Amino acid sequence: MTTETQNRRKPPRPAERILRWIYPDGTGLYTYLGDIEEAFNEKFENRGVIYANIWYWSVVLVSLPSFLTSTIFGSAAMVKNYLKILYRNILKQKLYSIINITGLAIGITCCIFILAYLNYELSYDRYHENSDNIYRVCSTGNFGGTDFVNSTSNPIVGMALFDDIPEVVNYTRIQRTARMPVRFGEKRFYISRIFYADQSFLDIFSFRMIKGDRTTALTDPNTVVITEDMAARYFGDEDPLNKVIEIADNSYFTVTGVIQNVPENSHFLFTMLLSFETQISQNPQMFTKATPNWGRWTNYTYILLEEGYDYRQLDLKINDWAQQFVGPIKDQANIIITFFLQPLTSIHLNSDLRRELRVNGSIGYIYAFALTAAFILLIACINFMNLSTARSSKRAREVGMRKVFGAYKRQLIAQFLGESFLYTLISLVLAMIMIELLEPLIKVNFNSNISVNYTEIPVLAGGVAFILIFVGFFAGSYPAFFLSKFNSINVLKGNLNTGARHSSFRKILVTSQFAISICLIVGTGIILNQVKYMKNIDLGFNKEQLLILPASGSSPLIIETAKNEMLNIPGVIKAAKSNVVPGRRPPGYGVFPEGHEGTSAFMMEQINIEPDFLDTYQMEIAEGRGFSEEMITDTSTAFLVNETAVEQFGWTDPIGKKINSFGREYTVIGVLKDFHQQSLHYRIEGTLFRYFPHSSRFRGLPYGYITLKVSTENITGTMQKIEDKYRELYPDREYSYFFLDENYDMQYAAEDKLSQVIELFTGLAIFIGCLGLFGLASFTAQQRTREIGIRKVLGSTISEVTILLYREFIILIVIAVTIAWPLTYFFMNGWIQSFAYQSMIGISVFIFGALLAVLIALVTVSYQSIKAAMTNPVDTLRYE
Amino acid sequence: MEYLTRKDEIMMLAILRLGDEAYLVKLREYLNDSTAKKWSVGNVFVTLERLESLGFISPRIGEPTSKRGGKAIKFYRITRSGIESLKATKNLQDNMWDGLTDTVFND
After folding, report:
1. Between A517 and A304, whose confidence is greater?
2. Which of B40, B45, B69 has the CB atom closest to A32's CB atom?
3. Distance between CA atoms of A12 and A51, rounded to whole angstroms?
4. Closest CA to A789 of A874, A684, A719
5. Is residue B12 included in any domain, yes or no?
6. Per-residue pLDDT averaged across A563-575, rounded?
7. Neighbours of A605 (CB within 10 A)
């Protein structure tokens, strides 16, 4: 037999080690292990190495439970005794038990909820069969000196990748459209989230087809696949297949399929899929590799890679490969473009590029939530450790007796660990009950998709098991090892001095609790500050009392009529049309400003407005003038620019300067003061403003929104009149509106949610911390009753004694503050850097946080301290 | 005199039958074959340990062999009191069966 085969016949080493540990053999001969190894060898020869290894492990697993119960605890009778002692202890010290159990239960509840939330956030886009092999092709580069990272690419890249790279199994394209009116018969609604998509969309993504043939549904031009919701809305009980619907006035599409509603945990949501072939058939030369500039860069491209192929390899070579296409673009237009791939499953949490299909989550906030939940659990564990060790003197005698009667140290460790497991188990049950009660509340206030179903979500069940084991072990370990170490002779003689020897460890624990609490308080303060700052900053326009009527897809004349009719309503003060409203990103175009050398264009955002727009929004003009209806050139060759644009162009005297856009020359007639078109996450971009006449034949309709400034008086009446007027004018259209300020503030929904959750957690953390502190304070006071009695006999006043008791805690808090401040500053500064406009992190919020912690601690400690200080010394000293 | 359980009895008979070869692995093989049931390693081990602690069988440690990764074999022999209890169990069995064999088998 060769050495190699001998080696291969060895049973798995860790398993053998466990067996050796379970069945110790004083002789060192390990006869039983020999038996198992012989059987292992036989299995190895007959059934192969895998079977033999699995068998060996199964022997180990089967042996473990009986080992744990018999070897550690000794016997069932002892376990019964332990349980009885535990039960008596819980009842005897009700206050401590309640503090321990509620603290842990609250901590566990938080953790389970956060786990459920994390599970949901991580589940995004994972329901596709191929989710691990789907990648989005994104583009990045530099355009006119401005770097960009877009989630979009162009219609050609997917096709070209598919042709050239064998590992690309399939590709598909999506094109997003604006909200469009969709009509079937009498029913006409504005529908948003309509996509153009290739037939391969249905092959790559695993959305369930309910009706129609998924292999051909989107092959032909002018076909559409609609979701169940849409089918119900337009067709009710009728069969939607082969019905023809009208989309965006005068385009007709045949329904070829009904698809399931897109699950909420997707990085894109759609209502209808129009066949991409429709676009190709209208404009075939835009979709070939010969297309100059490779077509419009507004497509979303997804590719399916071969199973097991590492996308990073493709990521490395994709740019060399793309040179053949992007090289000419660089030469012609001076736009540097490169591509990169994003795994589908990482888009929701890790991607925050321009033109995302949906507002994505943020991995940073996920970490913040997880960290806070862990903190709370930690605080609860610390409580448990603190109170158990603090009470150790009460149980020292029990430990001594057990040792005298022959208990091994490991039995004692097992006893106390077992107790902490049981405490954890009780808390866990309590936590689960709380979760049942709180779930509906969380769903309403936080996220309706969070499900706390242990059987359906394995992560949750695993998490609960992990929490049980971790908390049970972590919280129980210190008391267990600490208590089991007692020397029985000393203990029984009464020489135990737990207070002094181990109070330093307790102090460290309390200090870290405080540090965590202060971190959370200060962090919450900073978040609230930033949110308040963002909501109250002068945006450069007045967002109050602006009611917006979306009107995209309607001709300029219809919008103009609607606007004028609305102006006749008494409560409407002003009205104006525009292509976007603040809170939404305007489209961008490349322009060539006067005085600019070189071939690269400047990327500018463009907002289409009309003369009344500036008045309606109360925007200010810094220089020059606004648009005027009297000036005929204003509608053809005039631009307004904002201050940022002037700065980017490097102009000193902007009025009268020329800007070249799409081959036409425009004159700058005025400069607008900068305003925040988008939330304060984003910098103010260089923006151009154009004015289109009512009869404009502009491709893609210049105006999509009517903004109405309404007076505060009788606002409900005014709104009713607006609605009546709208329905009277357009009986076949759906009426919808929103208020600008609410809509604008929705950009801060993530921050609102973050601050809400962190606030709640901070409250809980402080509460649990206080529970522990309360318990500890009552214990310390109890320990020092005799000292206090003597001090009072010798002439101390009540206030002196109280201060004496306070002092101990105050020192701890001061240490905690010095730890917490720099930590919080470090983390929160990182968070605040993610905003383009940041509030100052003032010293006041730190001082406030620390003071609040001190105050809460003092109030908590006060009851016990003052009670101890007021005790009549006769009561405490009469037994001496 | 204490009577043996069926499992103990079977185990002791197996030890007698295997003689010098009576150790866990061989006993398990023999039991698997002759009872047409799966005996797990643990099952055999626990039974042997119990019989040993009752004093019905006594162990003998063999030489460590390379076949078992350098571990020794623990062989078993039936002790005097083991033989006594086997006898008692057999007697009891015979007494109980006496005169009933025909009734049971020819029914």
Report:
1. A304
2. B45
3. 12
4. A874
5. yes
6. 89
7. 21
How many Å lie between the alpha carbon of B83 and the closest alpha carbon of chain A? 25
Please tell me the distance from the alpha carbon of residue A724 to that of residue A656, in angstroms, as a whole number. Answer: 45
pLDDT at A781 over 50: yes
pLDDT of A200 higher than 90:
yes
Phi, psi of A241 (to 5 degrees): -60, 135
pLDDT at A405 over 70: yes
Contact in structure between A314 and A167 (CB atoms under 8 Å): yes
- Chain A, residues 52-111, CB within 8 A of chain B, namely 59, 62-63
| Domain count for chain B | 1
> What are the two backbone dihedrals, phi and then psi, of residue A702, each rounded to the nearest 5 degrees?
-70, -30
- pLDDT band with cut points at 50, 70 and 90 for residue A66: low
Residues A34, B72: C-beta atoms closer than 8 Å = yes
Residues shown for chain B: 107
Residue A27: which pLDDT band, with cuts at 50, 70 and 90?
A: low
Q: How far is A779 from chain B (nearest CA, A)?
A: 50
Gap between the Cα atoms of A205 and A304, Å rounded: 10
The interaxial angle of helices A363-390 and A94-122, nearest 10 deg, is: 160
Instruction: Return the structure tokens found at A601.
Output: 């264009």
CB atoms closer than 10 angstroms to residue A820: 27
Asked if residue B1 is part of any domain, the answer here is: no
* Short-list A144, A66, A2, A293, CA closest to A603: A144
Range of the domain at B26: 6-95
Neighbours of B88 (CB within 10 A): 14
Bridge partners of A689, per DSSP, are A607, A640
User: Least CB-CB distance to B71: which of A10, A34, A63?
Assistant: A34
Q: Is B49 domain-assigned?
A: yes
Is pLDDT of B76 > 50?
Answer: yes
Non-local (6+) Cβ contacts of A235 within 8 A are A184, A243
Say yes or no: A35 contacts chain B, CB-CB below 8 A. yes
Within 8 A by CB and 6+ apart from A722, the residues are A547, A549, A566, A569, A572, A708, A710, A737
Across the interface, which of A11, A29, A41 has its CB nearest the CB of B72? A29
Q: Identify each DSSP E strand in B28-69 by its residue range.
A: 57-61
Token pair of B65 as six digits: 């062999």
- Are B71 and A59 a contacting pair at CB < 8 A? no
| Lookup result for tokens 């409203």 | A581
Q: What is the pLDDT of residues A171-191, one digit of tens each?
A: 999 998 877 888 898 888 888
For residue A26, the SS3 value is coil
Q: Is the dihedral of CA A135, A137, A138, A141 positive or negative?
A: positive
CB contact under 8 A, B68 and A37: yes
Chain B contact for A38 (CB, 8 A cutoff) = yes
DSSP A153: B
- Read off the CATH number of the domain in which B11 is found: 1.10.10.10
A8, A27, A29, A59: best to mutate for the B interface, most B CBs within 10 A: A29
| Residue B107 included in any domain | no
What is this model's ipTM? Answer: 0.79
Look at A694 and A45; give whichever has higher pLDDT. A45
List of E strands, A291-364: 299-305, 335-343
Report the relative pairing of strands A705-710 and A664-672 from DSSP bridges: unpaired
Instruction: Find the DSSP H helices in A537-638.
Output: 556-567, 612-617, 634-637
Q: Which two tokens stand for residue A522?
A: 């200060």
Choice among A46-50, A63-67, A82-86, A487-491 with the minimum mean pLDDT: A63-67
Average pLDDT over residues A814-818: 90
**Nearest neighbour of A63 by CB, restricted to B42, B67, B68:** B42
List, in sequence order, every residue forming a beta bridge with A172; answer none if it has no partner: A302
Candidates B21, B23, B25, B32, partner chain A, best to mutate (most A CBs within 10 A) = B25
B4-27, pLDDT tens digit by residue? 888 899 999 999 999 888 998 899
